[in-house]
Amino acid sequence: MIKVFSFIASMAGEKSGTVRYSDDLAAVLRKTAEAAGEEISYERMTGNQLRVDYCLSCLNCFKKGICPLDSRDDMPILKKKLLESDILFIGSPVYMGEMSGLMKSVLDRLSYWAHRYELAGKPAAIFTTTDASFGQEVADRLADRLEFSGLVPVHMGHAKRGMGLPNLYLASDMQPIYEEAAQKLLQALASPTDFLGESAELKFKGRKRLADRGLKLSGLTGIPTWEEYLVLERRGILQAETYADYLRDASRGKRGE
Ligand SMILES: Cc1cc2nc3c(=O)[nH]c(=O)nc-3n(C[C@H](O)[C@H](O)[C@H](O)COP(=O)(O)O)c2cc1C
Predict the structure, then answer these.
(1) Which bin fits 240, alpha (ψ -120 to 50), beta or left (φ > 0)?
(2) Residue among 95, 134, 165 to mutate when testing ligand 1 (max atoms within 8 A of CB)
């Protein structure tokens, strides 16, 4: 069973156009997987189902891996779903040419995952909906930021709804786009290293160079070197020469080899 989790950063719930993108893509992914003899479970959450508070800028997550807000809002629920899934859908409406404020708040709260590669090797579809403009730009930027946490975005897409008129984009126009995305998601699940973006590899190499020299990883932001070292060591990052190696090691570890 392949677990797909979708987080849609819209408060519009079932009326959200971004939810429609997610559900339509999930339907095509299910069909594609079933044709290959695989089953899909699909779960989605929208902004209105969660309370997500603003980051306090305390840096505790970077230092200790613990966020004080986690005990009072719903981020732990979201984190658990993100970590437990095999494939992620991350969708946001475009507001004022950017991702929604909620999406940004979620990214802020997950910033420390960029230091820990929490999402390493997880294939993802990243998408936005707009009335008219900035859709692809925002999807690409969102994918780039999530890649910092090791995520493997293989589909960056957008749909235009048309000015003020809900659900105007045509499902038939989107069909080939969803089909290509579904193929890529399944391929990436089998072999994430075939889909690694440049920035993931570059970021990995930079981090490793610093770690190899015993330099402070993030001295300016007050992140203690030794704590990061422990995380890196535990995750086998210090032994791996490339991000691709790391992913292979990590998936070997997961399979108990
Ligand atoms: C506050 C706000 C700002 C928006 N800004 C833009 C924009 O800059 N460009 C655009 O094309 N559409 C913009 N829209 C339209 C939404 O992006 C569009 O309707 C989107 O599909 C809504 O997604 P949802 O139904 O999933 O919430 C904006 C809508 C709102 C509510």
Answers:
(1) beta
(2) 95
